[in-house]
Write a structure and sequence with these properties.
The protein has 7 helices and 7 strands; from the N terminus they run E-H-E-H-E-H-E-E-H-H-E-H-E-H. It is of the alpha/beta class. It has a 7-stranded parallel β-sheet with strand order 3-2-4-1-5-6-7, sandwiched between helices. Helix 1 crosses helix 7. The chain binds guanosine-5'-triphosphate and zinc ion (2 copies).
Length: 230
Amino acid sequence: MRLVTVAGPPTCGKTSVLRNVACHLQTDGHEVGVIKLDCLTTNDAERYRQAGLVHVAQGLSGSLCPDHFFAGNVPRLLAWGKQRQLDFLFLESAGLCNRCSPHVKGALAICVLDHLGGVQLPAKVGPMLRSADLVVATRGDLVSQAEREVFALEANHHAPKARVLSVQGRTGQGTLELARKIERMASPLPPEEPRLRFSMPSAVCSYCLGETRLGDERQIGNLKLLELPA
Ligand SMILES: Nc1nc2c(ncn2[C@@H]2O[C@H](COP(=O)(O)OP(=O)(O)OP(=O)(O)O)[C@@H](O)[C@H]2O)c(=O)[nH]1
Ligand SMILES: [Zn+2]
Ligand SMILES: [Zn+2]
């Protein structure tokens, strides 16, 4: 089975792109599964089903950090995919934290970014972009050719090893080429225990433990104080 992790900021076009890619791979005769992990709400599983995909699931992290929820579930999700004898398993993350990255060693890592975020976006996204193998830029239909080119240069500056591809999630334009790239680039998972590519932030503080009161006397655990100008 080949694992593909797909991360990107909320509403950047991950599902629109993935449902096209997964259908192309399915048409080629592959067994394809997609699991969406989100935070509070999603109807992505239904959208994947409507596109004709059979092996579909979704889960919500609720009060947990969605990236930690993602990492904690990877082994179970892999077992689910292997049990169904999938050729490809896509995991779509919530993409909410710019400090985290859900990408797994040995899996193909895709970062989806929206052209409309502007050329400053790649600098802000962090490890989910920097540790990606492929960068997919959406909503290219709404910007100029020059903007697409500058965006690709910026994305490559922050993810030098990644290939950048502009696709349109809504019409599916460019997603067949992307599916072909994924077929070439994704390898079967190695037999070793899966590992994250990037460590999560150490985030145990009063508020992780449910504190709602604000005040120095309430602070325990990790605390980082902002240095303000005098
Ligand atoms: N114009 C245009 N719209 C797009 C494109 N890709 C996606 N959209 C639209 O953007 C909206 C959000 O797309 P989704 O695919 O749901 O985005 P997502 O990243 O999966 O969203 P979450 O999983 O909820 O974070 C939808 O209304 C899409 O039709 C694109 O390339 N061009
Ligand atoms: Zn989605
Ligand atoms: Zn995080």
